[in-house]
Amino acid sequence: MHSEEADFDVGIIGGGPAGASMAAYLAKAGAKCVVFERDLFPRPHVGESLVPSSTRVFKDLDFLAVMERERFPHKFGAVWTAAGGRREFDHDWLGMAPDVRADIRFEERDQPGVDQNYTYHVDRGKFDNLLLQHANGFGAEVFQGVAVRDVRLEAGELPQICFALGQRQVHCKVRVVVDCSGRRTFLGNRLKLRIKDPVFDQYAIHAWFEGYDRTAAMKKGSGKGDYIYVHFLPITNSWIWQIPITDSVTSIGVVTQRKHFAKRREAREGFFWESIASRPELHDALRKAEQVRPFTEEGDYSYAMQQITGDAWLMVGDSGRFVDPIFSTGVSIALNSSRFAHKDILRALETGDTSRTSFREYEGTLRRGTRNWYNFISVYYRLNVLFTAFITDPRYRLDVLKLLQGDVYEEQEPEVLARMREIVTTVENTPSHPWHQLLGDMTANAFNPAF
Asked: pTM of this prediction?
């Protein structure tokens, strides 16, 4: 134990979903914590569609009432669509005939600890602000507009977080540092722990639209406008997301590999509309809508860390791992990271042992879960539109749904993932197979063991 006095038990870098939920968990348990957020909330952010495992955290933190009060759109499931008449729908193999439109409902599988049949779509600017305020309500100290400049981690001494207040350079001593800085990965970059993903190099361009017909790709009256949609594109490993933000505003984004992404902004916006035009029913509906936010770009998505914990520090959420967001895993991983990590932190504070070994349960759980997400996404991209076969096949439907609900942390590898990879490998090795030419251009085993 350190004889010197700490200003706070825990110092948290970043006030997004990871930092806010971590602060709420710790403050609710009585720990003295502080959050340093460089931006002023609410901040503009791409809208996001949550997965049901987030509900456990909202229940823990007494936050469900806030979600309902603010009337975030309810999300009951997911829909995948592809253009009709394409030849990938003209076959039937092992009873797995892909459908042009496949959907899945969360209520089809009972999820332990989750007692509602929906999750939420959120305006992240609004959601992040509410969650950070909620943490402050539990007693967490929150500094907004304050950027952390340095973290000093010296053996045998309390960590120091250095930041600026106006022209003054200030530092505070804490017992544990939690990096929740998101994709800036403050400690990951400072300690040179970041590993660039060798496979995924996805880029996205997106905007918000008012008055878009969310059922344009479905039969009229389908009643699925409140689902998240994934619209497959003819370009390999490329797709469109469709996420409700409010009753009338929808986030639309086009995701593709870097090699397809133009260098100039004008060309990228052209690529967006060309991609939408490959699905005429979507294009016609979107042209009738009003664009209410400018196009925004995201890129260079996925990375891992050599380690996500150390003596007196942890990484939580995107700061420690970022996986391609096709299944809207970002906020879920952030929230569940806090759910797992705060238990180790409280135990470490109580025992006085803040060494890396005190956080091994969190690190093992998170690595297991993110590895399962990563492997799921790897085989998903290889299957491309053929993934819908596993959604429509009753042998695999509920096992896939379990993954989509966010329950990925318990098993080393879910059986359905091994089966999916086995089937894809068979197709890869059989050039005459009717699916062979329809696979994405990643291999089923295209992942780095470090991930």
From this structure: 0.92
